[in-house]
Design goal:
Radius of gyration: 13 Å
Largest sheet: none
Number of helices: 2
Bound molecules: zinc ion
Strand content: under 5%
């Protein structure tokens, strides 16, 4: 069986998907709908659009 993908690779993929979601949003500074996902589990720690 092939080794599963590394955590780094999965994290990079998650970051890329998040960045795409933020870019797709029409806001300029980030809003709850793009920087906070109800599925991410850390809703009290909003991400920064400047941080990517
Ligand atoms: Zn937004």
């Amino acid at each position: 069986m092939q080794a599963s993908r590394s955590g780094f690779e999965l994290a990079a993929e998650w970051v890329r998907a998040t960045a795409e979601a933020i870019e797709a949003c029409s806001c300029s500074d980030g809003c709850p709908s793009c920087v906070q996902s109800p599925k991410c589990g850390n809703r009290n720690s909003p991400l920064s659009k400047q941080g990517r």
